[in-house]
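Please produce the structure of this protein holding zinc ion.
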Amino acid sequence: AVADDYLRRIPKAELHCHIAGTLRATTVAELAKKYGLPLPRPAEQLYQWPNFDGFLEILRLSALVLRTREDFSRAVYEYCEDASRDGNLRHVEFFFNPDYFYPNGIDYPSMVAGMADGVERVGRDFGISARLICCIDRSINSPAKAVEIVETALAHRHELVIGIGLDGNESVGPPAIFAEAYALARKGGLRCTAHCCEDYLTPLEAPPTNYLICRDVLRCDRIDHGYNMLASDYVMAEARKDGLYFTPCAWTSLLHNRPHRPQRIRRMVEAGLNVTINTDDPAMFGTNLGHGFTTLFDTIGWGPDKARMFSLNSVEGSWLDESDKARLR
Ligand code: HPA
Ligand code: ZN
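Below is the modeled complex.
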């Protein structure tokens, strides 16, 4: 077994983290009060929901407190402050869904400028680097809307925005319908990832073949989650040959059987996939990078070699330039 302190202190890059899911409940409550946004429950109970779609609703509601450039800067700053302390975060690639924030009157360039302010501050204060991934919520964004989101990202190109992603409920937004948005992103020089085979859904709702669609139709460079792929030996064998990096998350409060995620991650590693460890929505799930690693290792019993493997995988799987990767290795 590895000491928890070693797991917390080993340097990490994080490739799967939604900015709206990182907000401290106290910050959400403070900003909601300032802006007169009604919340369903007090801060201590805010992050509770009956199911996956209920979780997504609270996520989108919390996002509504980010209204100014300063709010976006603060969100980046507070997450990096927490993750530096809890898990020695050194690099993070944040998902942000621009359409979550438009109801507040902020435009795309201003939200990106706010996050860029935060990135500059966390570089200075914590030595953390960060990039941004413009994300499409498949539950509420039509394929046409997804194309618009990519067009906006390309029209207001910012050096920190390096790719696109696809989140939300996979059972109502299968990957193939977003082919046009992905083709446009690739043509514009953006990298591509997508949430795929999430285990909140059954392998019938989020089937292993979604991996093949993400690979061949969306032409993804990376895959978020991936657990339901374990239901197909063929898909697992393909994924092993392909060598894409995966970004599963060790802890989620959406699954009540705690060891499930660690056991699925173990099987992904044993099948030879390139695996990284991430937090997804750390504040909302009541976790952090250090906690994710300690839970995973306490459940599986891996030694320090695996901790070093995950640490290095997170650098190799990142979308940093070679020179930045070299700095982190
Ligand atoms: N799954 C799908 N959509 C999401 C998630 C997730 O875990 N977190 C934030 N949006
Ligand atoms: Zn996610």
